[in-house]
Amino acid sequence: MSPVGWEAIRQWGEDVARIEPLTGGVANDVWSVRVHGHLAVGRLGTRSDADLAWETDLLQHLDREGLTVPVPIPTTDGRLFADGLVVMTYVEGGPPETEADWRRVADTLRRLHQLTQGWPQRPGWRSSTDLLHVETGTRIDLGAMPPESVARCRAAWARLAGRQTSVVHGNPNNPGNVRITANRVALIDWDESHVDVSDLDLVLPHNAAGLDTGAHDIAAQASAAWEAAVCWDDEYAIKRLAEVRAV
Q: Which of 48, 120, 129, 243 has a 20 to 30 A CA-CA distance from 138?
């Protein structure tokens, strides 16, 4: 990402400074920054204003409802993002390590799902079940996949029909997206969040969400199909597709 894009950071005040790059999603340039004397996180990407408005609105809603999430820090004139850049509070904590930690993550995800039933879809995104009828949505292009692979993915997604939908975090089983302390669980990196079947978030290590065998199988197959489609056709995508049963 060209440093030119980071010139937008001046809109958070004269004393703002970039500190060091953080490991973030492949789609963004993520840095620790200092704003008003406090450590924060800046994320620069190519998302549309409508997309960023959806994400920042969601994070403010979850923060108001008591979930620990990165909260957008406004520019000096009150905007929550500028020129593709979002600046958010830095969230302390470490990754989940034990089965008990992952159970706490599952409880937090269930709270997220409860707080966002009926939430509108992220602009330009599609849910798994939408992809039964359309070919493209954000980073997914089913037209780029072999027809047999698409048929496998769609068979996995078809099994989600009728299950509860809400906002899903999108990648909560990555320990790097969770920050745990003794008294709270925080979810960070909401770049993949969108509206989909809630169970897709609950395919966790140790089956920490306690899904029954049938529900876990449906969610695990659909989740593997989603990741194969999003990442197609790198090595990881091919590995994930191999986990989706043939039709």
A: 243
Range of the domain at 156: 99-242
If asked whether residues 70 and 129 sit together in one domain, one would say no
> Do both 63 and 116 map to the same domain?
no
| Assigned token pair, 153 | 């993915």
Query: How many structural domains does the chain have?
Result: 2
Amino acid at 23: T
pLDDT tens figures, 102-138: 999 999 999 999 999 999 999 999 999 999 999 999 8
